[in-house]
Design a protein that fits this description.
five-stranded mixed sheet, 10% strand, Dna Ligase, domain 1, two-stranded antiparallel ribbon, alpha/beta, 11 helices
Amino acid sequence: MFNARSLSRSVALSGAAIDAFIVGKKNQRKYRFWMEFLSLNMGDFMIFNHIRHKWVSVQLETGWALDTAQFVLLLPTILCQELIYGLMLFSFVLHFNYHACEAASHMSWVAGSFGGLIVIGSFFGFLPHFDLLLNSVVLRGIHQLLQFYHQATHPPTAVHVTDGGLLDNTGVMQLFRRRIQRILLAYGGNDPKEQFKYIQKLVVALATEHIGSLHDPIDPRRDLNETFHKFRSDKQATYLHLKVKYGWCDDGCDQPSSDLFIVMCRLTPAARDMKVKPLMTESTILGEESDDELSDDGESAILQRKLGGCCCDCCHVIGCNCGRKFPNPLTMNQFLTPQLFNSLCRLGHDISGPAIEAIATPL
């Protein structure tokens, strides 16, 4: 029997960013070097587990408290770097001012050895207090350049948070791990030809983590590529339904299954010749005002499938309506026009209804 739960606990929203794209396509050390050198990475390190260091006693909410905690955790590596710099500076003074070449050589060797020990020690962040070295920007850059990934029983003090599109740009893997029975995926990724590469990623991830497998709920023997082909051929379909069979149970127990409902940016034949509608307002969303009561600003004659451009709505009428058109604008277009955004919101509202009804109906 299906246990009812709030829709928000079963919804996965997709996301994508250039960081995951670059790492996925150019995951070699020579590209890593230039990415670090030119600072082409997105995301940043954030404090994750300051409890490991009892002397960091500030509250980690926001503002000055968070900045203070970050500075306190960074202080040991700053002192180490200043010590190395001081030893090197002292060796230069001995060499050029006092002509004590042998003493300067020993001092330089000590500074270099100490720096090398710090770099080597940063790879042992799982040891007590060694993870403080991971707060150094220089050491973290070396780790990223060498494609080193910290692995330990306990989480480090700081973790790097960035886009997850490299591994899973759907967000449903977390729900699969928790064996959620009904999952609604609103996918807004770059898939205008409906190739479903993101689902192929899920198939590999499910098998790699020994969670389960995806299959067609109508005929589990059917290959997924045939299921995708049938969906592409059915222009009236507004969502794709797949099923997850969980497996790899060591004690031979009967594993449950999950239903995955996927909604994507797709125009049905009835919506292809639909003209743009007035910009939504708060009253429109609340149902207090109909579209007929809104002003259209003279744009109602434009077909929504011809919307392109960026920044402002004037692009649609002055010859700047360039780029891939609605409902699949380019991912790099981060400045959607108000009308394009308005049309995407309306499309999502229109095509998600059948999927929400299906996920709420006991199978």
